Amino acid sequence: MTAGTPSREHPVTHVADLPGRAARYAEWPSWADPAVVAALRDCGVSAPWAHQVEAAAHAYEGRHVVISTGTASGKSLAYQLPVLSRLAAGEKAKASVRGSRVAEPPARDAAPVVTALYLSPTKALGADQLRSVSSLDVPGVRAAAFDGDTPMAERDWVRAHANWVFTNPDMLHRGILSAHGRWATFFRRLSCVVVDECHSYRGVFGSHVALLLRRLRRVAEHYGASPVFVLASATTASPASFASRLTGVPCVAVTDDASPRGARTVALWEPPLLEELTGENGAPVRRSAGAETSRILADLVLEGARSLAFIRSRRGAELAALGARRILSEVDPALAESVAAYRSGYLPEERRALEAALLSGRLLGVATTNALELGVDIAGLDAVVLAGYPGTLASFWQQAGRAGRSGDSALVVFVARDDPLDTYLVHHPAALLSRPVETAVLDPANPYVLAPQLACAVAELPLTLSELEVFGGAAAQEVLAELAEQKLVRRRSSGWYWTSRDRPHAEVGIRGTGGEQIAVVEADSGRMLGTVDPGSACVTVHPGAVYLHQGSSYVVDELDLETGLALVHAENPDWTTTPREIVDISVLSTQEKQDYGGVSVCLGEVAVTSQVVGYLRRRPSGEVLDHTPLDLPEQSLRTRAVWYTVSAELLGPEEPRRSARSAVPAAPDVRDSGTDGEVGTGGHRVGTESAGPVGTGEEAPANGRGPVREGGRAPGSAGLVPARIPGALHAAEHAAIGLLPLFATCDRWDIGGVSTAWHEDTGEATVFVHDGHPGGAGFAERGYAAIVPWLAATREAIVSCECPTGCPSCVQSPKCGNGNEPLDKAGAVAVLGTVLGALRQHGP
Ligand SMILES: Nc1ncnc2c1ncn2[C@@H]1O[C@H](COP(=O)(O)OP(=O)(O)OP(=O)(O)O)[C@@H](O)[C@H]1O
To answer: Which residue ranges run through the membrane (predicted)?
Structure first.
């Protein structure tokens, strides 16, 4: 692998061998329908793996179950076997009641006897799974999609005749539960609900889905059905408790993966520093992870290895494929044809063609975004290259799991990007390879999610007192009282009733994002090249941006957000473009405020604005050609935040030589640099990390950048010179975001933060932590209520982390819009100590 690297370079920082394992098989269960077994055998499954039978048996026997095993461990078969067996058996039973002696396949227009529902987080994944079930062609099984793409003319047929309906939470919410009367037959016979890739239901979206599943259960019960839930998940911590929280019913977990796995070698790779080039302010730069990945991918293709490279951005995937093709074409132009890019935003038929080509071996190298992480049946590759940490350990293992054929060893290369988080990981392999996978967090009791969900539930069916428990008991009662006050529901002795003829469903967004996709269209030909998320359009298709599609390069002429159109023309310039974005927060109203002698803690409404103000054109070497200003609209998010302010006296050293008021603004301006703008606004979450570990409680010395000045400072003050304040606040903000999920049961993706040494609305140094969703989701309230334990845990997490100057486990944030600069770990400990001191001294 290092054959192509110059001898003075030593990019590999660590190599780990992960042993392979042999498959453990089980007998086909006696209850399995012979037609289903025959169909699966025909598809090459000679015998099921033990975990598949274990999970399938739970489901068949009516126990709610979650199967949480590795990539390509056959989770689909684990739910297909019981569901298809039940569907086939149901149809047979009907045939025998009718007295037909010959096993005739039921007509396409027969009414179903037993039905099942399949839910996937995305339409694309649902379509993949439907294709897989349909290809089995089990007699009596009428599987069909019911999603946004289902033509109106087909919808009636699906409702009346399909016995396995493939849909997604959005359609379940808007198109099925809202009109359940039209689905009466389907619900009456509903025997099984499959929730695929359930680990992706986290944060606000997860909380919505949790309540949606409770609504589904209630509607099914109304029609006399009590379906069994079968959940499939990537490997996560505590799958049973997660699945139980998601569905509201106790689930058993199957985690003992019996699928075979080839041995894998994991190499951690740090691109070398370049001697000939420096970055901003003369800082040394490393060869980019993308360029390094292109080279590794090209080498792997030359070796004939079927390889996937995961790149974090769509643009990066295009560039990496282009780079590998360029390298290969120098060796043999024909070889260049065996490399392609893959990402969402391609048209479905393009994606299918690419998947088939990779499976058949016609393509050897594919550079992809995480679009190939989930669900797609691509496994057993010779190598996987990860350019940058994908955000969670669950994602890391899911992507790495695409490599490894039984009997053959495979290679996984993790290439660090030039950022502190990745650098930390390649030098601390245990943090990557030995930590338990994090569990997804959701909170169905969140009042902001509960209110719209309860409105939908009441509109679907009047809600009785005895059903309240399903929706959170007392919390639900409070929310219903508010809805009654707003005259949306009416309380009667028998329960709560919807007052309007209109249904609330269309108004309730369950993903916390919204808006139509932006179409990218070639102006000359009118050809649609792909789509872009509206939240990220200003970043990816601003006027002047170089937009890549399948290796072809386009330049954007016009972006019209109103009509949802970006017009481009084909052009292949020798530069790339990088947008510059500023993020700001302003206080709209302060609802709660507590003063604690120099520290105040507030809760209120804020406006978070981000704006792409220009872009840089760079040569591939990193050389900046120029900066072009842009006049694009601000993207704004009105939400809720918790914030604390600290007086200059408490932050600074004792007896400040300058007046406190002038000392703080003299620090570098961090209104832009101390922000984490890339948060929770949907569509462009480019990274993550698990929240930092909570400390052991031992007060280890914080070995931060520059010692915390112990001498010469006022009792209780942080003792920081002005230049350190921005970094200290920024580091404290990051760690607080990491720790809030402990108290607010949110996901760190659902929140964001801004820190500043002087904020114009508060007039002081301020750290904001805000909900990442319009209108807020209740997390800020929880932070406000738990301010002391939250900040104490934040401080402890930083103190107990043994790294010297800050790392992903303490003060670095993967979503920092500012590349984790400036960060002052010791300063953060000092600030938090001061804030906590004030809270405790002056608290109630
Ligand atoms: N018992 C088995 N024996 C041999 N092959 C199997 C068996 N079970 C499943 N497979 C094959 O393994 C591949 C992966 O299966 P599947 O896509 O269901 O895995 P998965 O766990 O859902 O993957 P992902 O991690 O992508 O969600 C498929 O090609 C499937 O046909």
So the answer is: none
Q: Per-residue confidence at 96, pLDDT binned at 50, 70, 90? A: low
| Length in residues, the chain | 844
Q: Which atom of ligand 1 is nearest to the CA of 401?
A: 25
Of the pLDDT bands very low, low, confident and very high (cuts 50, 70, 90), residue 746 is: low
Query: How many angstroms separate the CA atoms of 271 and 419, rounded?
Result: 11
| Contact by Cβ (8 Å): 664, 671 | no
ipTM of the complex: 0.98
Ligand 1, atom 25: closest residue by C-alpha: 71
- Which numbered atom of ligand 1 lies nearest the CA of 234? 25
Of all helices (H) and strands (E), which one includes residue 731? helix 725-744
450: left (phi over 0), alpha (psi -120 to 50) or beta: alpha
State the pLDDT at residue 36. 96
CB atoms within 10 A of CB 225: 17
Say how far apart CA 651 and CA 719 lie, in whole Å.
6
Q: Is 21 exposed, middle or buried (0-12, 13-18, 19+ CB in 10 A)?
A: middle
CA of 688 from ligand 1 middle (Å) equals: 27
Q: Ligand 1 atom 9: the closest Cα is on which residue?
A: 74
Asked if 543 contacts 557 with a C-beta cutoff of 8 angstroms, the reply is yes
CB 809 within 8 A of CB 693: yes
pLDDT digits (tens, 9 = 90+) for 516-556: 678 899 999 999 888 887 767 888 899 999 988 766 789 99
Closest CA to 675 of 782, 572, 813, 541: 813
Cα atoms in the Cβ-side hemisphere of radius 13 Å centred on 463: 30
pLDDT at 439 over 80: no
The b/e string for 245-258 (b: 16+ C-beta within 10 A; e otherwise) is: bbbbbebbbbbebb
Backbone angles phi and psi of 157, in degrees to 5: -65, -45
| ω into 6 cis (within 30 of 0) | no
| Residue 32 pLDDT > 80 | yes
CB atoms near residue 585 (< 10 Å): 27
Secondary structure percentages of the chain, helix, strand, coil, to 5:
35, 25, 40
Does residue 304 come out as left (phi exceeding 0), alpha (psi in the -120 to 50 range) or beta?
A: left
- CA nearest to 375, candidates 351, 339, 392: 351
- The pLDDT score that the predictor gives to residue 668 is 32
Atom of ligand 1 nearest to the CA of 73: 21
The sign of the CA dihedral 736, 739, 745, 748 is positive
Q: Is the confidence at residue 59, as pLDDT, over 80?
A: yes
CA distance 12 to 812: 23
> 305-316: per-residue pLDDT in tens?
999 999 977 778
**In 3-state terms, what secondary structure has residue 206?**
helix
With both helix axes pointing from N to C terminus, report the angle between 787-799 and 725-744 in degrees, rounded to the nearest 10: 120
Query: In this predicted structure, what is the pLDDT of residue 255?
Result: 95
* Cα dihedral value 759, 760, 762, 768, nearest 10: -40
What value does the CA radius of gyration of the chain take, rounded to a whole number of Å? 28
State the distance from the centre of ligand 1 to the C-alpha of 136, rounded, in angstroms: 14
Ligand 1 site: residues with CB under 6 angstroms?
A: 45, 48-49, 52, 71-77, 375, 377, 379
Residue of 413, 266, 356 lying closest to 340 (CA atoms)? 356
Query: Between 346 and 770, whose confidence is greater?
Result: 770
At residue 505, does pLDDT exceed 60? yes
Q: What are the helix and strand counts (H, E) for the chain?
A: 25, 30
Name which of 111, 259, 256 is nearest 184 in CA terms: 111
Residue 283: DSSP 8-state: -
Cα 157–Cα 159–Cα 160 angle in degrees, nearest 5: 65
Which tokens belong to 56?
Answer: 């399938």
Name the residue of 25, 28, 45, 52 to mutate for ligand 1: max ligand atoms within 8 A of Cβ: 45
